Amino acid sequence: MRTVILLILLTLSIQAELKYQNDYKTALEEAKKDNKYLFVLITIKNCRWCKKLKRTTLNEQEIKENLAKGYIAVELDRDSSDYPKSIEVEGVPTVFIIDPKSGDIIRDIVGFRKDKNDYLKWFRYVENIEE
């Protein structure tokens, strides 16, 4: 019975909107503690493509499930957030997957991508690194 209740709660929480942290250092510590990767979304305040990416592609159920399972998501403002200089932002939106142990950038996507499969390929790539 507990298992069923936990599965229902997990499903409902995933269906809710994904919560992004807004502090890189806090997200990094949580990722290390939980043994998860960082999913870093770099945006700016009035970027319509950034908003569209969050509202559409990153709001797809399959994306949210993958993020909940293996990542700590953090959204940072390119102009006002504090993040490592190794994260070089060429444009917004930009998404980085970062190994929290080494600080290495594993993958990045610059710009709006409508196709969720671009992100799902990333997730599979990261899973293969772990094996």
UniProtKB/TrEMBL annotation:
Annotated Gene3D superfamilies: Glutaredoxin
Keywords of the record: Signal
Annotated Pfam families: Thioredoxin_7 (PF13899)
Coiled-coil ranges per UniProt: none
Identification of the protein by name: Thioredoxin domain-containing protein
